[in-house]
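Q: I have 747 residues here and want to know how they pack in 3D. Can you give me a structure?
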Amino acid sequence: MPNTSTPGEPAHVNPLRLLCFLLALLVFGTAQAQAPFVSGGSVESAGEELPTDLTVDEIDAWLATRSDGEIRALLRQELFAGAEAETDGQGSSLIADIDNRLSAMATTIGERVTRWADALSNLGDRREQIAARMALAANGSGGMVLAALGLAVAGIGAGLIVALVIGRWRRWLMMADEAGYRERLVRTIVLTALDMVPLVAFVIATGAAGWALRQPLGPLVDWVWIWQSGVSNAWLVILVARRLFAADAPSIRIAPLADDDAKAVLALIRRTAIIGAAGWTLAGMSPTLGLGFPPAMVAVFLAGTAIAVLLVLAIIRNWGRIRGTAAALFDRRSMEVSAVAAAAPILLTAYIVWAYIYWGALWLETGRAHLVGPLGTLVVLLVLPVLDRLGAEIAGWLFARSTKAARLKAVMVRGWRMVLGIAAILVAAGLWGFDAIAFALAPDGALWARAVFEIALTLLIVRILWLFLCEALSIDDRTSRGDAEDPDEEAVEATRRDTLLPLLRNTALVVLVIATIMITLSAAGLNIGPLLASAGIVGIAIGFGAQTLVRDIFSGAFFLIDDAFRVGEYIELDRDLRGEVEGISIRSLRLRHHRGAIVTIPFGELKNVTNHSRDWVIYKMNFRLEPDTDPNKVKKLVKRIGAELMENPEHGPKFIEPLKSQGVFMIDDDSALVIRVKFKSKPRQQFTLRREIYHRLQAAFAAEGIHLARRKVEVVASNPDPQSVAASAAAAATSEAEVAPASTDTR
């Protein structure tokens, strides 16, 4: 299985899935472009026809020689001919046209094959033509053969010599261990240009040798360009395939193929190119030597048949490899072979058989090689993986320095694949002679074609735009906040995004859906003016009937603009209504109370909002101590406890300023000394820190002999009665036992 995956590169577009549509489009393009159908019959003129190339003076002279009856007859004949042609054109069907076209093709092929068979069986009758052509050779047939060999040696030898001269630079370009994709692409381009030099040397040397050996070559002078074009085209195909698949230089390969796959594909392309060049050059000798065109036509047909058989056999031998390669190329999220990838060899075989039938039928009918469609489509399919990888690499280059745009990179890759797949279909259709864009945008074209084109283009643009918006409005950088210089600021920005992005995404979705519907209806030929007017009237009516809803929406928009609250923050709306913001819709706020209840409040009902989760919190705590307590001693204890808490790995990061004593706050009426301490912490952390501070200070006070002041009642009498004093003491003891220290928890 070839390793073709790219880190961080998703796969959403399956080009093999588009092949089914491509094949259907090829059939339609073939019927419409390369071979025009035979239309229905037309009116035959039995008599004279109206002239069309007369000058003004000639028209008057021609009319002067005709009677009124003759002119009426000619005019009637032309009008009937036009009406009948229009009726036949409207009544003809595609099936009838196809049947007529195939019938005409079968008749022509039958006649040509019969004629070729007769010509091949009677080649002996062409002795005179052959002798006349051979007489053109200055040194006889032997000299002609030697001159042809010299021509071949001169051209190929020049190319090999130049290849040896540039071999050192070629080897340096092919040696790039651990090279990145950009370096491999640059080296491949430079190496391709360098490999073109031997081909240019072959063309120049062949032309020069043909001119120098024109006398010995004799009749083969006309064959020189056939040899030159056949070999140079095959050479060019092999050169491009060698650089594209880089079987000899895997370190700079840009195609996502394993070494074995690259070598197999290159060997197959090399064999097909050699067979094609051999068939072309051998066929060119037939008319040159006086054998006529039938042997040449048969030779080319046999070469094409051999190539088709070779390709089909190669698919059969590499059935499993093709399935695995298709799965690795187009199903990267799962290495299991999907249904489409499993059908890849079948689709490829069907295409080759179809292309061979198409090429063979037109070759036998017209004697012209219609290879642009069949070969061009194969080239497009072979280049698709390379272009797909190129798009992924370009996306990686654009977002290489941005860790926040990883999702945008994935969206760019998906958009590139969608555009690439559509472009491949259009290019392949154009190679088969069907220009889909021109057909859709033609002034006199079918309305449905223009509508389909505009709707498809709109949906494509909206789809790509929506993907970018979704990813741009859902970027989550929480995994990278640990490396930020100010993690608190990053957390604040994250809550801001969590609050606004869902609303923006929903708003963008509504706008895109409405715009898409309007554009689609307009492209379909519907007048959306009345619809827009009706929508405006309905909107006004809804606005009057939903004033409260409009108030809620506008109030919510201004609350969000003012950044009054965000998702996840703890807010207080009044004394009895508080909680954590759990969700924000377009018209209401959803609060989660700390006891679990969910409260939904429309934005229009919000008056004052108290936010307990912003920036920082200062929390103050009062301690009632005995009147004889030393404040300085308490201050030192508080400072020590504050330092311990700041060094604590769990509680230290929650502080912004450490715990400190504010000294004596007041002396209450029952002679208790009230000392206040305070600290500054992050929002919503004060409650946890408050409990920890209570525990630690209580333990420290107990260890230092500092006691909390108890509430008590003192009764002073002028003439104390022993019984009254005892009763008052008992009452005071009872009061001390029942009265607990006041709590400062006002949450």
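Q: Anything worth noting?
A: The mean pLDDT is 74. Strands lie at 570-574, 577-584, 588-592, 598-602, 610-611, 617-625, 655-667, 673-681.
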